[in-house]
Amino acid sequence: MAVSNDMLTQETKSERGSRRSVAFLVESMFVLALLMVFTALFIQLFAGAQLEGRAAHYLSKAVVVATNCAEQFSADPSSTPATSTQDDLEVRCDVETVDHEGGTLHNATITVEHNGEVIYTLHTARYVHTPGGDES
Amino acid sequence: MRRSMGGSNRSSLRPGLISLLTLVIMLSIATAAVLTIATSHAMAALSQRQANMTSEGYWAEKSAQTMLALVDDALQASTSSKAAGEVKAVDQRMDKILLEACEDGVTATYKVDDNKFTCTFVTTGGRILTTKISLLDGKSYDVVSWKLTAAPQDEGSDDTLWSGPTAQE
Which of A46, A55, A101 is opposite residue B77, by nearest beta carbon? Predict the structure, then answer.
């Protein structure tokens, strides 16, 4: 009778251990699946945020670079370089002149590009009065 | 989940340590992700606003420079070489000049005071360029002031934080 009881106890223990290992396996699988889903989601979110942050950073830089170019143009419209590079940004300044009776109006379109992609465009103008009429 | 088979017949499910740890880590990363996205959105909005304001400032600048060219044209076309006659000639053409000079999204008004023309260019985003030109004898002019400002955002508020040094005296 005692032998039979021992055998029963051992069987119950073994069954309990088996159930525990199955529960652990299920839990591990569940956690792993959750981990994968969330990791994929977070990678997408962080990548999107990084792209947006980088675009904003380049836009800020482009505004500063374009403003510098516009001020240079305003100081001397005729000597502004057509293209230049500042901080990995290519700056293009297209100047169009319109003659007036009293001087010349210089219209400039300043375009800032990064790797061939236009980031920012600025339009400005500068009128240069010519004493004694239009001599330009 | 860990399945507990305690002394009683009742079975209960409770999360294991690894599950709890994973949950805490995931919540932390989720919080960090939300903060990162909010920051990047704010940065993008700020950069875009800065870009728009700069563009608008230069649109007003372009309109004013064109106005200056057209005023000079009117001066050169004027039959009088005295300031009074020039003011009259320019004043007659000023509405047309401003209409021609203003770029899209820029509106302009002017007023004449003696021989000085004060032109105000306002952009849709609230940039204001105020220029003052003084007409001189001999079909010439002088730019007295050229000031770019931003329109106050909250005009309805009566909360005056500071009225300048003159108000304190």
Answer: A101
Does A70 contact B65 at a Cβ distance shorter than 8 Å?
no
Size of interface A-B (CB pairs under 8 A): 125
ipTM of predicted assembly, 2 dp: 0.76
Query: How far apart, in whole angstroms, are the C-alpha atoms of residue B32 and residue A46?
Result: 9
Whether B45 maps to a domain, the answer reads no
What pairs with residue B106 in β-bridges? Answer: B123
Binary contact (A57, B46; C-beta < 8 A): no
Q: Is residue B124 part of a domain?
A: yes
User: Where are chain A's structural domains?
Assistant: 2-129
In a domain, B48, yes or no: no
pLDDT tens, residue by residue, B88-106: 888 888 999 999 989 888 9
Global pTM?
0.77
Residue whose C-alpha is closest to residue A123's, from B158, B95, B65, B100:
B65
Q: Kindly state whether residue B44 falls inside one of the protein's structural domains.
A: no
Query: How many independent structural domains does chain B possess?
Result: 1
Tell me the three state secondary structure of residue B4: strand
Q: How far is B33 from chain A (nearest CA, A)?
A: 6
